């Protein structure tokens, strides 16, 4: 928050009405949006939490025109908004200026080679969240609801699956989200040391995604 308050302070003119990024009332919201969009990552270390730019954030800065990266643009727009507030500038004139600037940037922008390799691939949606109905997507460590207020997750290193020497795959999770159950082969039995087939059932209690096994009644038994 303090870094946002002083961002670009040295580059801004002395008569700038407001310096830094955002306002005291909007800075926390800006950070949360950057986190949810994948441009900031929270790194926890004991009692401290750091906000660090993600790989995609660094890539975005790499391809953005320098004019859009400059804090001077923030200072200029703040000045123009102040003129609108005082009745010295029409809102339409301010918006026309932005449109003209964007047109110039698009017309003169030189595409950087290799940008297709800079950004992470889009998150693939595997199904609907059983809690909120939002989209569940696959990330590096598991399958997570993309609704910021929902904490539904199926972790790839889940202990229940690890004990059976299996890891939830995209196909398995997709079936669990669609039907609530999926047939899985080659599950490992800690009791016998052998493998078996069973139906895995998803039971979400609103806090954790839990799993249980169902067996063919003709074969019976449990593992």
From TrEMBL:
Transmembrane segments: none annotated. It comes from the Bacteria. Keywords: Isomerase. GO terms for biological process: DNA topological change. The keyword Isomerase applies. Residues 1-106 form the Topo IA-type catalytic domain. GO terms for molecular function: DNA binding; DNA topoisomerase activity. Residues 1-23 are annotated as: Disordered. Pfam families: Topoisom_bac. InterPro entries: Topo_IA_cen (IPR013497), Topo_IA_cen_sub1 (IPR013824), Topo_IA_core_domain (IPR023405). Residues 7-20 have a biased composition (Basic and acidic residues). This is Topo IA-type catalytic domain-containing protein. It comes from Anaerotignum faecicola.
């Amino acid at each position: 928050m303090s870094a946002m308050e002083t961002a670009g302070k040295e580059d801004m003119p002395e008569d700038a009405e407001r310096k830094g990024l955002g306002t005291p009332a909007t800075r926390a919201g800006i950070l949360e949006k950057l986190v949810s969009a994948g441009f900031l990552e929270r790194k926890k270390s004991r009692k401290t939490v750091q906000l660090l730019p993600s790989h995609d954030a660094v890539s975005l800065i790499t391809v953005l025109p320098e004019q859009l990266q400059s804090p001077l643009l923030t200072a200029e727009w703040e000045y123009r908004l102040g003129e609108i507030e005082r009745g010295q500038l029409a809102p339409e004139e301010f918006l026309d200026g932005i449109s003209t600037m964007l047109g110039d940037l698009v017309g003169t922008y030189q595409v950087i080679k290799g940008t297709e390799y800079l950004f992470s691939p889009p998150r693939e949606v595997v199904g609907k969240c059983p809690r909120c109905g939002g989209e569940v997507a696959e990330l590096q460590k598991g399958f997570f609801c993309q609704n910021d207020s929902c904490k539904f997750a199926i972790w790839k290193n889940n202990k229940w699956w690890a004990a059976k020497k299996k890891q939830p795959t995209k196909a398995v999770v997709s079936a669990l989200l669609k039907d609530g159950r999926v047939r899985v082969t080659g599950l490992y039995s800690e009791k016998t040391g052998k493998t078996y087939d069973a139906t895995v059932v998803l039971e979400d209690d609103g806090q954790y995604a839990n799993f249980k096994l169902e067996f063919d009644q003709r074969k019976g038994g449990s593992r």
